[in-house]
């Protein structure tokens, strides 16, 4: 697993001390007065060609431009499920701008009298905001290349180019006499501190210290079952998986791609025949449950790489949603046995659920949610559809628990849960545990559409159940209805049925968790 202490944490402490010491030496001791005095010598003139070029560079490298570039990189990282890296980039923007402005207001150091009168040379001098922003961008770009496991030669070349660009901005500010020499170094140190702090706060580990990873004898191998429509950047994903495997002494992974005709069952059987030691499942909850069904009671653990929209099983098991952290959990975590829920609708083939299955309004919501909207706003798209589905009529159901006496109900929703929460916070079935060998049944029977609001409020605030909600636990249950009712399994609408038989197999699948 990832250690709590990494290079970013060490750099944060060192650079904070360095910036504090540099500021004290500059402003209190005057240690750099001689070199700062060179700024009193006039530099270029605004009318010269050289001066105009330098002024253009100053505008193109303003903090506004550089932080805009960083905002674009934040979106790039977020789309690739590099959530920790995206948070670091996002945090660094207000931290960088805010800290530099705060120090300027406290210090109130004037610009050199020889500064070229440009918009990029207004305000206080210490520290240089240009150098702060340039350092932050450079550090985070290098961190992104390391995290995404770019080739060493590419990282070295990019680092060299960024160093050259950094010194070009340094020289530009110096030749324009926009700053004293000590302002430029101070800005660089502040930028390095902010970048390191953002990486540490977001949990990005560029280089790890502490306990070494478990390195094998080179005989172990992982299979990667992935849904290509869910993996946003396959080259980045492949590099990260192969890099994590190689670092631990594993053989190159076996790559198996699902397709429209096979959600993962066929390729999972291929992985099982190859007798791999670990199966990484990269997809939504549907891919995870399909692969899990094939590896039930085999003793081969699954590592979930959450790249779907909901990732409900991962959230309930505490599997990180960040790609790098999820891979750490898969390789270095502990195996946890979880239950598999078996379902048979009418005379159809058996299906399985790891999260939640249901009949009624939830299946309608799943089927009517716009796929394009879901890609844009994620799980919030379900809430949009739910608003138009609250007037769905209830259905008459006869429910039998563990072979007991049948009971009649008229619910709008019958939910069978293997886990307790959706989106990590909404506890639809608070007593449900993924490894207790029990099914948790939740019946919602509103008398009118307005009751849904009261039920939702009770669930969200955890203040107790609404009278229209009933709960029960069993190892086996049967739901029979008068008319065909839509049903869903782990977010996938399967069809309609009049009879749903459900049972549970305890601890049938091993899943790697932190």
TrEMBL record:
**Which residue ranges run through the membrane?**
54-78, 85-107, 127-147, 154-172, 184-204
Q: Where is the DAGKc domain?
A: 217-347
Q: Which GO terms describe its molecular function?
A: ATP binding; kinase activity
| Named cofactor requirement(s) | Mg(2+)
GO biological process entries: phospholipid biosynthetic process
For this UniProt record, the keywords arranged alphabetically read as follows:
ATP-binding, Kinase, Lipid biosynthesis, Lipid metabolism, Membrane, Nucleotide-binding, Phospholipid biosynthesis, Phospholipid metabolism, Transferase, Transmembrane, Transmembrane helix
Membership in a protein family: Belongs to the diacylglycerol/lipid kinase family.
Instruction: Indicate what this protein is called per its UniProt record.
Output: Phosphatase PAP2 family protein
The top of its lineage is: Bacteria, Bacillati, Actinomycetota, Actinomycetes, Propionibacteriales
């Amino acid at each position: 697993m990832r250690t709590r202490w990494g290079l970013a944490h060490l750099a944060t402490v060192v650079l904070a001390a360095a910036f504090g010491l540099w500021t004290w030496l500059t402003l209190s001791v005057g240690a750099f007065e001689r070199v700062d005095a060179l700024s009193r010598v006039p530099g270029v003139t605004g009318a010269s060609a050289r001066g105009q070029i330098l002024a253009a560079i100053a505008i193109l490298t303003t903090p506004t431009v550089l932080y805009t570039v960083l905002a674009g990189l934040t979106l790039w990282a977020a789309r690739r499920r590099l959530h920790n890296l995206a948070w670091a980039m996002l945090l660094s923007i207000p931290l960088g701008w805010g800290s530099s402005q705060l120090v300027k207001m406290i210090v109130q150091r004037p610009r050199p009298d020889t500064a070229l009168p440009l918009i990029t040379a207004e305000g206080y001098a210490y520290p240089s905001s240009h150098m702060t922003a340039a350092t932050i961008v450079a550090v985070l770009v290098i961190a992104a290349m390391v995290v995404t496991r770019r080739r060493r030669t590419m990282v070295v070349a990019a680092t060299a180019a960024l160093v050259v660009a950094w010194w070009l901005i340094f020289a530009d500010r110096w030749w324009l006499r926009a700053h004293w020499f000590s302002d430029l170094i101070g800005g660089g140190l502040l930028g390095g501190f902010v970048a390191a702090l953002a990486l540490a706060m977001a949990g990005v580990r560029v280089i790890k210290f502490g306990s070494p990873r478990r390195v094998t004898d080179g005989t172990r191998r992982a299979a990667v079952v992935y849904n290509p429509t869910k993996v946003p950047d396959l080259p980045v994903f492949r590099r990260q998986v192969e890099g994590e495997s190689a670092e631990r002494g594993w053989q190159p992974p076996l790559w198996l791609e699902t397709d429209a005709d096979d959600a993962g069952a066929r390729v999972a059987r291929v992985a099982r025949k190859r007798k791999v030691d670990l199966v990484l499942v990269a997809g939504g909850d549907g891919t995870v449950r399909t692969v899990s069904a094939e590896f039930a009671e085999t003793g081969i653990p699954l590592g979930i790489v959450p790249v779907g929209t909901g990732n409900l099983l991962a959230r309930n098991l505490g599997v990180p949603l960040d790609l790098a952290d999820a891979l750490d959990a898969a390789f270095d975590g502990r195996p946890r046995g979880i239950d598999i829920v078996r379902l048979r609708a009418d005379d159809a083939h058996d299906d399985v659920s790891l999260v939640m299955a249901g009949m009624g309004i939830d299946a309608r919501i799943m089927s009517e949610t716009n796929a394009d909207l879901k890609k844009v706003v994620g799980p919030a798209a379900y809430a949009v559809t739910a608003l138009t589905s609250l007037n769905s009529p209830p259905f008459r159901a006869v429910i039998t628990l563990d072979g007991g006496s049948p009971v009649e109900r008229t619910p709008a929703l019958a939910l069978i849960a293997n886990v307790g929460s959706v989106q990590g916070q909404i506890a639809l079935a608070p007593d449900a545990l993924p490894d207790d060998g029990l099914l948790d049944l939740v019946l919602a029977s509103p008398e009118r559409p307005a009751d849904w609001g009261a039920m939702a409020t009770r669930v969200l605030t955890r203040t107790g159940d609404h009278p229209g909600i009933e709960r029960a636990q069993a190892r086996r249950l049967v739901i029979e209805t008068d008319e065909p009712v839509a049903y869903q399994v782990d977010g996938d609408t399967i069809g309609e049925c009049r009879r749903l038989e459900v049972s549970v197999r305890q601890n049938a699948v091993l899943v790697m968790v932190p």
